[in-house]
Specification:
With 118 residues, the protein is mainly α. It has a domain of 39 residues. It has three helices and no strands. It is flat. The model has no long low-confidence stretch (mean pLDDT 78). This is DUF1754-domain-containing protein.
Length: 118
């Protein structure tokens, strides 16, 4: 019977991805001032290179919408206009009256149903 319990590991549970040592939190390293300067100089170099190369190749890309996209936008605008018109037809007073009428027609869910004899 004691042979069954010989191979059971002891100790606390360990979380996934951890090194196994509890209460050990790694802090992110802050970027040094030198790294920022290097990045700035690198960015300036890229901008200078792109400006010299763009003088040689002035390619302008024009993105146009397809017929399906234009039709979709048209239909969306029409539906929005219809929705606004429908909302504008009724006044606030009429909407409240309609809501009250609906609520009166609904069964009252909080009533205790009569179950059983008597």
């Amino acid at each position: 019977m004691s042979d069954l319990y010989d191979n059971i590991p002891g100790g606390s549970l360990r979380l996934k991805g951890g090194s196994g040592l509890p209460n050990k939190i790694k802090k992110k390293k802050k970027k040094s001032h030198k790294d920022k300067e290097k990045l700035k100089s690198y960015a300036k170099d890229l901008i200078e290179e792109s400006s010299t190369s763009s003088e040689k190749n002035n390619i302008i890309r024009v993105v146009t919408k397809t017929e399906a996209e234009l039709k979709f936008e048209e239909i969306q605008k029409k539906r929005l206009e219809e929705k606004v018109e429908k909302a504008a037809r009724k006044s606030h007073k009429e909407r409240v009256a309609e809501l009250n009428r609906k609520l009166e027609e609904m069964t009252e869910h909080y009533d205790i149903p009569k179950v059983g004899p008597g």
